[in-house]
Amino acid sequence: RDEESGECWSPTALPVRGHGDYLTRHGFGYSVFAHRESGIDSELTVLVAEEDPVKLVLLTLSNSSGRTRQLSVTGYVEWTLGETRTRSAPHIVTHVARTPGGCGILANNFYGDNGGGRTAFFAVSGNDCSLTGDRREFIGRNGSLHAPSAMKLQKLSGKTGAGLDPCGAVQSAVTLIDGDQRTFIFILGAEENDVCAQETLARYMNEDTVRQELNRIHNHWHNVLDKIVVNTPDTSVNLLVNGWLLYQTVACRLMARSGYYQSGGAFGFRDQLQDTLALSHAAPDRMREQIILCASRQFIEGDVQHWWHPPHGNGVRTRCSDDYLWLPLAVCHYVETTGDMDALEIRIPYLEGRSLQPGEESVYDTPVISGTEETLWLHCVKAIHYGLRFGEHGLPLMGAGDWNDGMNRVGIEGKGESVWLGFFLYDILQRFAA
């Protein structure tokens, strides 16, 4: 915001689009948004720390307007801290964070089933800062982020506490002489408690630290993505294969567990095992970890959770006929490509949970860890045996879908069969016997 004229704009195309063009560059583990507005150049660099649960944003403003400018930068988040914002908002309590070199807000939802007691935080660097935890103050009654009411106020009120429509808004003001530039740091994350949150804020409220983290991100992704380089006559194929496809598999599918139409954050048994097949050469350790994780979500009967949510493991048990078979397939591929036979001897416990009743397609439950554990090899054997169920034509029973979830009603009465599943099972048996 220009403090003299009151003009506001975003360093990204939304929510308050400026008049000039926007340039967006996406790299491995970071994105950069560049814009020029009224003689002020902005560059917004966004990344997530390699190890800590924190999102870092560097906003650099450069003044080439020919005069001194009075400016402020404002960041805004809406707290969910639960399944949906409408359900969790009444239970969220905000308070001011002790943030050397800036100001910040801490937020807690002690009534949350998942992550209750954890502390979320949002902060900005600077010497002239203000904040609010009141969404109504920031947006205004019946307002929107396209024209927030708080942008008409000189400073944010500092209001936090319980009983508010909660948000996190932080603002930092600066005077930029002509030719000068200033970098602001925005930090968003969550930690185990208030103390850990304050420590994380203090650690990253330093531009050098954030830029070092950006370099770590560069090195991390190149170590993974440069293992295999493909050169073909088609430049577009090279661009996809040499980095972007594998990056998307790891960053989107395994780490974020997100997609264009389903950003639920759950672990999918078949989904993540399919994804990790791409990592046998580039990141075999990550593939091994995923295999062990998925094996731990297998019921003692042999079937598996179709998907589940950490940290408690609540998820769905279904009649899908292919889920559990991806475990022996992934294990075979892993052993074939790495030669790691020792992995087959890792002992992993099973789950115990409510069985599906006749006529039930699925059940959402929180199973418990069984006292029975067996080797990864025997987990695979149990999955294969569970899949050896055939219909009157000698083909495997489809159950509630054979990879194609849209065919969930074909085998609901225990009669429908799957040609595809027959091919799939045959391939697994051939690999497993080799």
Automatic annotation (TrEMBL):
GO molecular function, one term: carbohydrate binding
GO biological process: carbohydrate metabolic process
InterPro entries listed in its UniProt record: 6-hairpin_glycosidase_sf (IPR008928), 6hp_glycosidase-like_sf (IPR012341), Gal_mutarotase_sf_dom (IPR011013), GH65_N (IPR037018), GH94_catalytic (IPR033432), GH94_Enzymes (IPR052047), Glyco_hydrolase_94_b-supersand (IPR010383)
Domain Glycosyl hydrolase 94 supersandwich residue range list: 1-206
Start and end residues of each Glycosyl hydrolase 94 catalytic domain: 220-433
SUPFAM superfamilies per record: Galactose mutarotase-like, Six-hairpin glycosidases
Organism: Enterobacter hormaechei
Protein name (Swiss-Prot/TrEMBL): Cyclic beta 1-2 glucan synthetase
Pfam family, one: GH94_b-supersand
Key word Glycosyltransferase present: yes
Gene3D superfamilies: 1.50.10.10, Glycoside hydrolase, family 65, N-terminal domain
Taxonomic classification: Bacteria, Pseudomonadati, Pseudomonadota, Gammaproteobacteria, Enterobacterales
Key words of the record: Glycosyltransferase, Transferase
